[in-house]
């Protein structure tokens, strides 16, 4: 916990200073922070509970559309919309999970793609609901305490808060009962049941929390984009990107997904001119390397070494 | 009666396009049946076939079908290589590892194509693009579709002969049924896995070549579309079951064409996906399948 | 003595095969009941039906007089039913302490008291010095003890032991036998599936013999072992 607290403090300090040091790179910072938050949220379900989802862009889209439609149609301030989005995401995750948690391993992953694709088709085709394929525009936003939500600086600090909150929640969970229930379900559902754990209930909670947090990031992303198109927000490759960020960084570790986000967004920036549109090439090569050489992900492998070393040291003394 | 002719026309078109889906699905299901690998890169293999045809057409003016002479063996070898270098090393890891590895592979293929050829959709215009053959009674078959159908029948027929009439076919079926048992009777299952992945990739490449006169290939989106279709086809039929994948492919082809003409075409892709989820949940052995062995 | 567990005409079928055929059994408080029989006799299936991992086709199971036939395994665990698995399945990626922490959380939601219980249990089974070791690095005998520790950490009143002695070397076996005896003295009712006759004869108050899913004999261990039908069942199938 102390290392986690230290890490969060570090993230806070670096995060606060970043815009002053690199004011020209605010967009990169926002993207990185959003991905830290998304990958960390994804990891509650994908890493801690071990249910790989390839449909999380749905929750991003949900959050973004709630903010945009809430503002443009009902004049609802973004913070109210985001709260509604949290409820909607949790409710949908509950139903979605109820239907699909009977499926194991890769079959669950496949079903999440199918679900998210169906939602994407709905978002594209139901004009009355989402404005259809042409998209929605956020033309105006309220200015709470005179803060301009359209400013990149504001959006940056919102994204920083989102990243801090998600990592903070996971750090909190990791040492407590719920965190251990999640790990138990991931490792062996039968053993978990013998320990009095209801695997479906635990997975549902994980999915609801994961989806709701992802939707919060989606709401901030919606403000950041201010023009929303369904094929961007509900995109399968966004789901893939979120999942791979967490897996490459290290599933089921507090800081793995965040590390993955920093690594991937930074290398995306570095190779921006070389790869341009083809920046997912990096994700492809890294995930292949991870599967072949570091199946627990970067920090997953590091933390396992640390556990072993700590034990070896304690056994000696 | 006037309604009957367009209906028959649709059925015929649906069956022919469904045949190509079957060809894709058969490769996916063969790989799953033998290797327990869910191949996320399958759609990208189809796209590789499309780009092979495009390259040979643009550089040498070849007819897409003529490019098969190069594309098929190249596809087979690439499949063998991918299996040997990547998948063979994780054969005993959890099923999810091969899913992630092939997902990575699909990103690499798609984005490499994007880097090399750029993002604009490409196709091959064949001189017989709009030629048709009359089946009588006003039902006409497009030559392009008919050729695709013939290619499918030839490829699946060849696969059938390979699996049922040859020594290696017996070894493949044996490995699919029971990998350890096959090893005990002296079958080199590593080699079989490589051969099967090669065949699966070859079939996908063939499907890509057959499809390219019909549609535009775009490096990053077309692959995903066909990967999803392949999953739908194989899950409809029952993963690991070749005959059923053919049935699933034909069914999807017909449903798509009929759905697009008689129902709303906007949800064309959704019908397959809904069916996919329902089958996964309620009939994991597939619509036509007897129960397939599951761990 | 009060009865803690009862099964009535419990029957499990797989397809056409009847794996457990109308079996009755009773387990009294502080009693050790042994379940023996040749391979394929249906012991594990009966065990799983009693613990809720397999749905019975007929019959009923009662815990402390309350029917639990259709309760899920985790609900029975909450009511005080602990179990080990034959193929020990620790949470491989976690440390020994964390493995025991998970069941300890059942009765102790706070980390501090759960950890206290977990450490106590580890002490009892003699794994304290391994608390921070990853479970996947343990040898067979220690994995068994970890398996037992996890079952004990839910603070059960009934303990189900599935071949906990199998594969142990003689000293480890002696240790395990005396440990199980201590558990009974602490007030646990125990049902054990076991192949090791030495353990059965030393520990059990009653023994039930299964063959082809049916109960073919029951009684005191010495008496049952001498029963000709039991001898036949063992020799006949081997």
Could you please describe the fold and organization of this structure?
The complex is a heterotrimer of chains A (317), B (295) and C (238). With 317 residues, chain A is mainly alpha-helical. Chain A has helices spanning 2-21, 26-48, 57-74, 78-100, 106-125, 127-130, 152-174, 177-187, 189-194, 199-225, 230-233, 236-249, 256-270, 272-275, 280-293, 298-316; strands spanning 136-137, 227-228. A two-stranded antiparallel sheet of chain A has the order 1-2. The longest helix of chain A is centred in the last third of the chain and has 27 residues, at 199-225. The radius of gyration of chain A is 19 Å and the shape is globular. The mean pLDDT of chain A is 91. Chain B is globular and about 60 Å long. Residues 289-295 of chain B have low confidence and may be disordered. Helix content of chain C is 39%, strand content 26%. Chain C has helices at residues 43-51, 73-78, 96-104, 111-125, 140-153, 170-185, 197-203, 221-226, 228-237; strands at 3-14, 17-28, 32-36, 58-63, 66-67, 81-83, 158-162, 189-193, 206-211, 214-219. In chain C, the strands form two sheets. In chain C, strands 6-7-8-3-9-10 form a six-stranded mixed sheet, sandwiched between helices. In chain C, strands 2-1-4-5 form a four-stranded antiparallel sheet, covered by helices on one side. The chains are: A mainly alpha (317), B mainly alpha (295), C alpha/beta (238). The A-B interface holds A 52, 99-100, 102-103, 105-107, 109-111, 113-115, 117-118, 121-122, 124-125, 236-237, 240, 244, 247, 275-281, 283-288, 290-292, 295 and B 38, 86, 89-90, 93-97, 99-101, 103-108, 110-112, 114-115, 119, 220, 224, 228, 231, 235, 266-267, 269-270, 273-274, 276-277, 280-281, 284.
């Amino acid at each position: 916990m102390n290392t986690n607290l230290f890490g969060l403090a570090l993230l806070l300090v670096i995060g606060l200073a970043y815009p002053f040091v690199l004011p020209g790179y605010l967009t990169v910072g926002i993207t990185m922070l959003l991905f830290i938050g998304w990958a960390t949220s994804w990891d509650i379900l994908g890493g801690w509970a071990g249910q790989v989802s390839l449909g999380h862009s749905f929750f991003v889209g949900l959050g973004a559309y709630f903010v945009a439609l809430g503002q443009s149609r009902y004049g609802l301030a973004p913070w109210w919309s985001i709260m509604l989005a949290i409820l909607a995401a949790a409710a949908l995750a509950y139903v979605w999970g109820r239907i699909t948690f009977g499926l194991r391993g890769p079959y669950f992953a496949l079903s999440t793609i199918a679900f998210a694709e169906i939602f994407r088709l709905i978002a594209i085709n139901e004009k009355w609901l989402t404005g259809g394929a042409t998209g929605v525009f956020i033309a105006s936003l309220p200015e709470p305490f005179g803060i301009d939500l359209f400013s990149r600086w504001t959006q940056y600090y919102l994204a920083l808060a989102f990243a801090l909150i998600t990592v903070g929640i996971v750090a909190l969970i990791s040492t407590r009962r719920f965190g251990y229930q999640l790990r138990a379900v991931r490792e062996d559902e039968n053993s978990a049941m013998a320990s009095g754990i209801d695997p479906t209930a635990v997975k549902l909670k994980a999915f609801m929390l994961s989806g709701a947090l992802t939707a919060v990031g989606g709401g901030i992303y919606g403000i950041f984009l201010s023009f929303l198109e369904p094929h961007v927000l509900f995109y399968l490759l966004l789901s893939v990107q979120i999942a791979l960020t967490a897996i490459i960084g290290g599933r089921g570790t507090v800081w793995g997904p965040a590390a993955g986000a920093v690594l991937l967004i930074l290398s995306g920036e570095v190779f921006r001119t070389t790869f341009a549109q083809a920046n997912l090439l990096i994700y492809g090569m890294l995930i292949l390397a991870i599967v072949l050489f570091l199946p627990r992900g970067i920090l997953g492998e590091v933390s396992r070494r640390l556990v072993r070393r700590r034990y070896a040291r304690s056994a000696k003394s | 009666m006037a309604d009957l002719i367009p209906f028959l026309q649709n059925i015929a078109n649906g069956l022919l396009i469904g045949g190509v889906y079957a060809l894709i699905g058969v490769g996916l299901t063969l790989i799953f049946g033998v290797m327990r690998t869910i191949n996320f890169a399958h759609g990208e293999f189809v796209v590789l076939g499309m780009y092979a045809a495009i390259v040979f057409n643009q550089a040498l003016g070849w007819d897409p079908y003529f490019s098969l002479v190069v594309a098929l063996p190249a596809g087979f070898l690439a499949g063998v290589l991918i299996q040997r270098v990547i998948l063979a090393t994780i054969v005993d890891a959890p099923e999810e590892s091969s899913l992630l590895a092939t997902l990575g592979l699909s990103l690499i293929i798609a984005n490499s194509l994007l880097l090399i050829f750029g993002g604009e959709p490409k196709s091959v215009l064949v001189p017989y693009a709009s030629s048709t053959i009359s089946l009588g009674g006003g039902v006409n078959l497009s030559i392009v579709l008919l050729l695709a159908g013939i290619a499918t029948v030839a490829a699946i027929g060849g696969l059938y002969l390979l699996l049922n009439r040859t020594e290696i076919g017996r070894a493949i079926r044996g490995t699919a049924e029971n990998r350890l048992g096959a090893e005990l009777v002296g079958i080199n299952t590593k080699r079989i896995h490589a051969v099967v992945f090669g065949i699966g990739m070859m079939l996908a490449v063939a499907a890509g070549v057959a499809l390219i006169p019909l549609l535009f290939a775009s490096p990053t989106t077309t692959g995903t579309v066909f990967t999803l279709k392949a999953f739908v086809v194989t899950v409809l039929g029952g993963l690991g079951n070749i005959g059923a994948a053919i049935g699933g492919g034909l069914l999807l082809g017909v449903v798509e064409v009929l759905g697009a003409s008689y129902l709303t075409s906007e949800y064309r892709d959704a019908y397959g996906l809904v069916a996919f989820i329902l089958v996964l949940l309620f009939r994991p052995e597939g619509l036509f399948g007897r129960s397939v062995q599951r761990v | 003595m009060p009865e803690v567990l009862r099964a009535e005409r419990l029957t499990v079928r797989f397809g056409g095969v009847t794996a457990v055929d109308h079996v009755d059994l009773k387990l009294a408080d502080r009693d050790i009941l042994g379940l023996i029989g040749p391979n394929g006799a249906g012991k594990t299936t009966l065990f799983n039906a009693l613990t809720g991992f397999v749905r019975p086709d007929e019959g009923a199971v009662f815990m402390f007089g309350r029917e639990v036939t259709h309760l899920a395994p985790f609900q029975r665990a909450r009511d005080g039913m602990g179990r080990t698995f034959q193929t020990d399945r620790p949470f491989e990626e976690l440390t020994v302490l964390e493995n025991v922490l998970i069941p300890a959380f059942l009765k102790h939601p706070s980390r501090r008291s759960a950890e206290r219980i977990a450490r106590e249990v580890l002490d009892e089974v003699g794994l304290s010095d391994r608390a921070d070791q990853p479970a996947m690095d343990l040898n067979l005998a220690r994995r068994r003890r970890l398996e037992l520790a996890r079952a004990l950490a839910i603070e059960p009143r009934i303990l189900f032991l599935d071949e906990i002695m199998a594969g142990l070397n003689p000293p480890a076996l002696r240790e395990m036998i005396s440990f199980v005896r201590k558990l009974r003295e602490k007030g646990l009712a125990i049902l054990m599936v076991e192949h090791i006759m030495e353990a059965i004869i030393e520990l059990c108050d009653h023994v039930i013999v299964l063959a082809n899913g049916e109960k073919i004999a029951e009684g005191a261990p010495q008496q049952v072992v001498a029963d000709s039908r039991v001898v036949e069942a063992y020799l006949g199938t081997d």
